[in-house]
Model the fold of this input.
Amino acid sequence: MNDSLDPRVNRLRLDKNDGSFKVEEGENWNVFEVFHQEKRGAHHEHVGCVHAPDANLALIFAKEQFGRRKKCVNLWVVRSADILAFDLEDEDMFANNPDKTYRDASGFKVMEKINKFKAHTK
Amino acid sequence: MYGGGYIFDEPNRKQQREEQLHDDPEKLAAFEARIARGEKIEPGDWMPAEYRRQLIRLIEQHAHSEIIGALPEGTWITRAPGFKRKLALIAKVQDEVGHGQLLYNAAETLGKSREAMINDLLSGKSKYSNVFNYPAKTWADVTVIGFLIDAAAIVNQVANSKGSYGPYCRALERICYEESFHLKQGYDAFIELATGTPAQKEMLQDALNRWWQPIMHFFGPPDKASSHSEKLMEWKVKMASNDDMRNQFLDVYVPKIWELGLTLPDPLLRKNPDTGKWEYSDPDWDLFFEVIKGNGPCNKERLDVRKWAEEHGRWIRKALMRPEEMERSALPVA
Done:
């Protein structure tokens, strides 16, 4: 009898088991992205991912992994492979966004015009 | 919980160094400029081969440490003193296993599959933190782990969460949040023994004496002995030197131990008032490397238990397998 403090080692005589073991590629299933909703009406936000054989089990694993603390009212899961994204290299396509002031309230200086008008009509 | 502000490397890594030499110098310069500006690197981005290799190694070993680290504590769930301690310990052990999953996912974004990482753990090729190769003999050991090992891990993880690789930083932010509960529940249990009966105090002092050397080993060999960390610091893979992290840990936690009337088994341990740095006797670094090699008191049984779990979990993994779901292999995008 060995004197391990881990009862499994003693009970199952794991110390006698010297065979090697290899996990097969794909044995840990697919990757699902997880989205967490903190309260009703809020957006679901991406929080990480889980490995699961299908979406239903992915939801259960997601609850264990991302919903065991703090507020959570709902979770989404989606297969990572099903997410379509731009290449990060293409981020320059958004480069002139800050220049498009005509799409923004701040791009319209109405007070300047009113003040000018008032000064003129006084 | 996590062990090790150090990254283990095998001595002969010439091949990878060659690869590193072949990195496109223009891309390398752009990459280093991004890091210098404080930008995060994401999975799809170009990165030097050596950066990828070092990160896989770091994150994978971190993941293994979480999983293996749950074993010495897990065996105390059935023996925890009282219902509240038992609930807290179950929650903590579940967190640690969850941290392992988060970290395996982060490492997978760099191109190594979870299966390959688990196989490298089982074969002994891939390491985990040395502290988990020591036995948790009494309940006081569990409180020392929960308080001091977790505290050391937090010093390390908070530093790493400011690193350059996006998925690792995001995983660490969540981990650090949960670790704060681990530390607090460990401290609470630690104080209870320290302020308890003479027998409780004696048990705690004994655990502290046995764990002090592994704790001093925790942050890895002294800076003067560790090579190749300059580039890793520049790339923000390694965020602080081993000695700096050790000093930061001692600065916060030694006073907390001493104020409870406990002692530490190092007569030279003191804070030098002139330099503001802690001085201590060198722990036995030969022993440290001996344990890394696999010759610590619990290395074999830790891997035996992991192997047994993988072997006996296979039937259910297979039973749940949906072949139609497996058609396209997928890696996480973020």
Q: What stands out?
A: The mean pLDDT of chain A is 89. Helices of chain A lie at 7-11, 55-66, 110-121. The first helix of chain A runs from residue 7 to 11. The domain at 28-121 of chain A is CATH 3.10.20.520 (Ubiquitin-like (UB roll)).
